[in-house]
Sequence to fold (102 residues):
Amino acid sequence: MVLRALGATPEAIVADFVASNGALATPERLEELAARLNQGREQPLTPEALFALSGVRGEWLEVMFGRLAARFGSVEAYLAEALGLTKADLVALRDRYLEPTG
Fold:
């Protein structure tokens, strides 16, 4: 929500979210996690289960954005109605946290 409040597009937010898999859910990391978690287990965790513990999927955010749009009309409306952020608040956030372009 912070990224959206700062003006990032849903596509950019999802791409950033999924990029975290590069550090969290690499095949090597999943193997290491499996070795630790499956020690002494009768039924080892599957790679899918391990990914659910340490990875992310873009669909998760897409569903959230869709639900907010269905309930509030848009993510921006959610920021205003549910979180109480005014247009002035959003401008102040952007002024504070974004670097000027150009």
Summary: The radius of gyration is 19 Å.
